[in-house]
Fold:
Amino acid sequence: DAAFIRYHRLIFPDHTADNLSVSAGHASVNAESVWGVLRGLETFSQLVYQDDFGTHFVNRTDIEDSTQFQYRGLLLDTSRHYLPVPVILKTLDAMAYSKFNVFHWHIVDDPSFPYQSRTFPNLSNKGAFHPVSHVYTQSDVKRVISYARMRGIRVLPEFDSPGHTNFWGRGQSDVDSLLQKRHPSGTFGPVNPALPSTYQFMASLFKEVASVSTFFTVCFCRKSNPHIRAFMQKVGFGVDLPKLDAFYMERIVNITSALNKTSIVWQDVFDYLNIHRRIWRTMIMDFMVEVWKHGCYLCEVRRLTKAELRVILATPWYLDQPGPTHNWARYYVVEQKKLVTGWGVNLWGEYVDASNLAPRLCDERQTSSVERAFPRLQDFRCKLLRRGIQAEPLYVGHMQT
Amino acid sequence: MCNCVSRLSTHRAVGAGKREDQTQTDTQQKEPELVAGPSQYGSLWPLPQKVHISDVSFKLSSSNFQITDAKESSAGPSCNLLQSAYRRYYEYVFVGPKNQKRGRDQPAGPSEVTELQVWITSPDSDCDSFPTESSDESYELSVDQPVAVLKAPKVWGALHGLETFSQLVYEDEFGAKTINSTVISDFPRFAHRGVLLDSSRHFIPVKVILANLETMAMNKFNIFHWHIVDDSSFPYLSQTFPQLSEKVRNRDGYRIRYFLRYRPNSIVPTEHRFTSFETVPRFGIHVTFPPPPPNRKSNPDIQKFMEQQGFGQDFTKLESFYIQRLLDIVTTTQKGYMIWQEVFDNGVKLKPDTLIHVWKGNQQSYQREMANITSAGYRTLLSSPWYLNRIAYGQDWQAIYKADPQDFKGTDDQKKLVIGGEACLWGEFVDATNLTPRLWPRACAVAERLWSAKEVTDTNDAFNRLAVHRCRLVERGIPAQPLYTSYCPREYKGI
Structure:
């Protein structure tokens, strides 16, 4: 119902429901699930056009549509810069118009911890840029998730560990002891895999996040220190760091499985364990891998699919790297094969916040033949503008109104 | 004092601010690190020539503060330019809810500034004129209690001084508006400090141009170089040649029809005319003469003409002829004019007072070009390192900041011929959706290079001031993009 109202407004922005008359014919959208209907409504809204007098037209059309990839994601980074909730919601709108279905919410990281945790409130009290104005409350997160669901979008909040946890220590005195002081100057992170309390903390935090959202990802980055080394001696890993990594990884993946969730890991995990194959073989790998590094990323995809792991490809679509707009063409021709579950468009936040997010994101680099696509893309960009999304220009030109 | 500076590093940033002490946190870095912390100059941008900020602080109350004309000032209530500036800057200073008016008889608190008096010292304040290249933009500001005084020979200096005053105000930990006792004496290093916007590749709504003009004023720019027409479109509604464009306003906005394409053999100058706007002065004409399109060379009419004139096959002679006629036309309008560097490079004969705009090449080539132009006795402007339409990943403001227009091999007299520079934002990939974030705060780096003293080169200090200045732009409703990982107490709200 909400979708019907929404699309009605998008198609007929100037009209109210009462003075609308339709001549001849009817249209129907058939789909197996509501998610298909949502996509069909969007397509329908793109078929409608107006002539110079303002009359709305739609041509007789037959469309059969389905998606090649289950995971079509967008990453936003709210740790480098806090993004106000309305900005996130607007992005979800733009995603729906482009048929994205996953919002990968890189919610916390080294620079700040804006997620307001019920269980560990000090994480954001001390870790956010500002404990009141620059946090996402539980209800903020729920709101984003519900707004996304109404548009057929899943939300994946991401919590990296054991590295990228600089600010966790500031907020949590137990986490303090979990974190290793790297320098006397007082930096913190990564979390200490040697302490059982680490895992208790992680379990509690993830449990809370899981209750708020259906999915989340963990990253895995780690460094070493004397406490770690002592622990390793104790449990018989010797000096074999990969064993420790596997140990940590397994514990985390176990936590997430116990919550009935699937983990997604960055390719670093796989790359690392791949080098230490003897460890890797003993682990049960039940996670998805996101490929993001440059170089022969297709080689990486091949390796992963050969290891029967599901893949999300992100490398070609790093939108935080700007370039003249017509480079959007380079995003358009990448081959994928079967186990590749999908692709992710990543907009890291070092140089991006609410002031420049929309034009940089809606750069239309996310849509296969480049020449044929250009006129359609220009048209789509104009549609986005009319719907209030600040999509940047592709090249010289102008819009009607 | 500054509560939104953040630390620059490749992998992690620590929010320095009122919740933390100012310990420098350190991590292993791949690139040189800028260390954040409050600057001794607060958030002043661009940095004044002479400034001393003491530790003594005063409060400001929105219900008890006024900007007034000094008794001795040569400008008064009839000077609209100043009166509207007072209103504008009052709003900037007291962003946010204002107090109810206090009782009139209540005296000022012991450490309260209740008045900023503006004193135009020259008998002719210039209030009703347009600024020119030789206008006096200097001012002196002294912040004391209960009255602060802003002295300037002309209104132009007063406008700059008001901006500086507004930059000295900050919030203490209770949110009270505070300002320290300060003495400033300021004037610009270069007289021509401009921003170029291109409204031909993409139409820019007037609203957007005005918002950017305000931002230029906040950064003490004084030239708006409006590249109004070009090949792509001719949005300028000419009274003499109305058929050049048709602008039809309907209830949905402007509808632009392309009408005229550049025709090589018709004398239609791609003229740029500046609108008068009280905070951004200057009125002139810039003539562009892009390289001739290929079809001109084969046009039989042109061939015949060249034979008649005795040019033979030498197209540079034709260029010379054309540009000369054009410049003669422009001279009759009694406006100043400037040209892009190609005209000089192609050896066209130029009048001695021509201003030449350098825009091509890497550092080596533009430095060489500046040297050549000034040794030939012409005045010059620099834009080459300041083509803001060229974007890159990372903090490219630093390279922009380091470029200096007088940095070339030449005599002092030659260097005096450099009258300033311009930040250019060409419009191939820019329109109202992304113009403002792309222009600011990178253009701020150009602003300081052109206003402040030559020795102001410390990028660390610049970063600390610029980060807060950028948040101030955001607070004033300008979507200036971030320098790096950071936050502003009041983030940008418009989407």
